[in-house]
Design goal:
The chain has 140 residues and is of the alpha+beta class. The protein is 31% helix and 40% strand. Strands 3, 4, 6, 8 and 9 form a 5-stranded antiparallel β-sheet that branches. The protein is elongated and about 50 Å long.
Length: 140
């Protein structure tokens, strides 16, 4: 089972987590990315995410299918678009597998690949200027 989505609505974790529960699997790993206030010395006020939605969804589907096949997993990937305030959830990733090692590995693979290949752009409104893609001094 896989579920991928882009949304402009607040991401609600509980219904997404429920999609991962399956008696076949004994491990569920989730990653939730939120908007942080500080990246090193850069002070962020808010972030706006935009996407080439059709392509982003295709890439998210491809990534979820790849993880499903590689790890015999269920996968949920939801990314928020629009203007987000500090502490808002920007991305939710969930993976359920038979064992925890695969679940951790698959979750990490999804976030790393999503950041590299899915056409979602971040416009960061900082106290000193607007940055596209965030600060180049920090990756996390």
């Amino acid at each position: 089972m896989k579920y991928v989505a882009l949304t402009e609505e607040k991401i609600e974790i509980e219904p997404l987590f429920a999609k991962l529960i399956n008696p076949k699997y004994g491990a569920i790993n989730t990653f939730t990315g939120t908007i942080r206030e500080w990246t090193g010395e850069v002070h962020t006020e808010k972030i706006r995410y935009t996407a080439y939605a059709e392509m982003a969804l295709k890439e998210m589907e491809r990534l979820a299918t790849s993880v499903e096949e590689k790890y015999d997993a269920s996968v949920v990937v939801v990314h928020r678009l629009g203007e987000l305030e500090l502490s808002d959830i920007a991305v939710f990733i969930g993976v359920s597998t038979a064992h925890r090692a695969e679940s951790y590995e698959a979750s990490r693979m999804i976030i790393e690949e999503l950041k590299k290949y899915v056409p979602i752009w971040k416009e960061e409104f900082d106290t000193d200027k607007i940055r596209w893609g965030g600060s180049s001094r920090h990756e996390n």
